[in-house]
# Entry
Amino acid sequence: MGLQLSKILLTVAGFADASSTQAELLRWLPKYGYFAILLAAFWEGEAVLIAAGALCGAGLLDWRLTILAAAIGGSAGDQIYFYLAHDRGARLVQKSKRLSRIYPKVQAFVLRHGTWAVLLSRFAAGLRITIPLVCATVRMPAKKYSVLNLLSGFAWASAWVAVSYQFGTHLPPLR
# Structure
């Protein structure tokens, strides 16, 4: 089972173009399971979530616990970004050329579509950290952001697990 599982995880890492951090967390997945999922989701952990969803489909992880761990980890990460940006957001924008360049467009989007900006931010590459920062700097109420962030976390985790679960149903038996 171990060798087969390692091959599957390496395939997922290559397919998902996993960063070195995500690749390391993929190695943790068989041993630490839901805790590795929670940590990976704290950062942008799609590669780990894809692998976890496949393992759910293969019957090795529970899909409900996988979604819960990913939603909590992802939401916690974004919530921390939001709170840090309340005091430091303007300085972060000034120090970063990339943020300085995209901030006006993202700010206009958040001001126009606040709720949808938060709900969809996890699904837009490169905006997962930017949206919480902008929401904080435009003073979106913390309670509103927190609720939307949690809903977004569950939608994001559910979508990735549902798609990759199907892949896992076609894996050879790993038990």
Observations:
- The chain has two domains: 2-70+156-168, 75-154.
- The helical segments are 2-15, 20-32, 34-42, 46-57, 63-95, 97-120, 130-137, 142-168.
- The two ends are 6 Å apart (CA to CA).
- The CA atoms of residues 67 and 157 lie 5 Å apart.
